[in-house]
């Protein structure tokens, strides 16, 4: 079986996979351009997804399965993949630990005011009057109650916070004190001290946050966006900050990435920008490869796959 990687995992991981599946033929390339000459014979492609195009799918005449080593698939040529009846699995769920920790770090940063304390330290200023807060007793509204949202809620509960979740169905989910449907979004955010966006990018979620949602939030609330940057338009978010409808926005994802130099988000005093990094740790590739190895066994021998993509739903 010809298996082509369009990225190179660490050499130790490459060797481990080849040892476990010695009967298969593996090719590891730095990018999909380097793999061009072997794509037509590839039966399985392992990719981050963003390098696939309709032309490439057409070129892959033997392709049966795409393993996406990420969770987001919005940039993939899903129509062409569906037309060919190509099987797709993702790495959904591997992000929950790093992204939840990253989110809790931002929340603690917000209430403990570490950036301001750092400024005081550098200026050798002893100021014990800087008012600090606690997470305990505060409420968090998490838009998206999947693996990532649930892990964030679990950690928030450990900090004695109240957790509200928002999903399509309104069904109850572990670690959430209350659940709201998407149609109840305004009600869900109005008591929250933190509003966290972890929704995937689908036709239903693009632009889901409107001006009235920010108007309904507490003026002291912080908005944290770590899912996809298109859940709210930049104009609406900037207006909400400038009009002091919320206190601060922590943004790790954007509609256009990289965020261009000179963009108003970079220098805004009430916005914190990070470079879509919340999910990236040294454990990322090993976790993705564990899912790939499990699914490869299922592909060869049968069994229950992890993270089968429903192309029509987009996740």
UniProtKB/TrEMBL annotation:
Gene3D superfamilies: NAD(P)-binding Rossmann-like Domain. Residues 104-278 form the D-isomer specific 2-hydroxyacid dehydrogenase NAD-binding domain. Keywords: NAD, Oxidoreductase. Pfam families: 2-Hacid_dh (PF00389), 2-Hacid_dh_C (PF02826). InterPro entries: D-isomer_2_OHA_DH_cat_dom, D-isomer_DH_NAD-bd, NAD(P)-bd_dom_sf. GO terms for molecular function: NAD binding; oxidoreductase activity, acting on the CH-OH group of donors, NAD or NADP as acceptor. Residues 29-308 form the D-isomer specific 2-hydroxyacid dehydrogenase catalytic domain. Belongs to the D-isomer specific 2-hydroxyacid dehydrogenase family. This is D-2-hydroxyacid dehydrogenase. It comes from Domibacillus mangrovi.
């Amino acid at each position: 079986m010809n298996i082509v990687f369009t990225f190179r995992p660490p050499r130790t991981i490459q060797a481990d996979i080849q040892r476990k599946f010695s009967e298969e033929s593996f090719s590891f390339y730095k990018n999909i351009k380097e793999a061009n000459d072997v794509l037509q014979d590839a039966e399985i492609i392992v990719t981050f997804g963003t390098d696939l195009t309709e032309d490439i799918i057409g070129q892959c005449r033997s392709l049966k399965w795409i393993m996406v080593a990420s969770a987001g698939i919005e940039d993939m040529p899903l129509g062409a993949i569906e037309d060919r009846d190509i099987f797709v699995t993702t790495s959904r769920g591997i992000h929950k630990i790093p992204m939840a920790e990253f989110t809790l770090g931002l929340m603690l940063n917000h209430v403990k005011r570490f950036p301001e304390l750092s400024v005081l330290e550098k200026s050798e200023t002893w100021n014990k009057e800087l008012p600090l807060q606690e997470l305990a007793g505060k409420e968090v509204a998490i838009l998206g109650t999947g693996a990532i949202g649930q892990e964030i809620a679990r950690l928030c509960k450990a900090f004695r916070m109240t957790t509200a979740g928002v999903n399509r169905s309104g069904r109850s989910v572990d670690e959430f004190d209350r659940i709201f449907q998407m149609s109840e979004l305004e009600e869900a955010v109005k008591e929250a001290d933190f509003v966290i966006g972890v929704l995937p990018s689908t036709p239903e979620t693009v632009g889901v946050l409107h001006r009235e949602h920010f108007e309904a939030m507490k003026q002291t609330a912080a908005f944290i966006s770590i899912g996809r940057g298109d859940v709210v338009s930049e104009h609406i978010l900037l207006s909400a900050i400038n009009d002091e409808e919320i206190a601060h926005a922590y943004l790790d994802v954007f509609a256009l990435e990289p965020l261009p130099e000179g963009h108003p988000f970079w220098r805004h005093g009430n916005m914190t920008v990070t470079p879509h990094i919340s999910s990236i740790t040294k454990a990322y590739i090993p976790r993705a490869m564990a899912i790939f190895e499990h699914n490869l066994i299922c592909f060869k021998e049968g069994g229950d796959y992890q993270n089968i993509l429903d192309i029509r739903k987009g996740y």
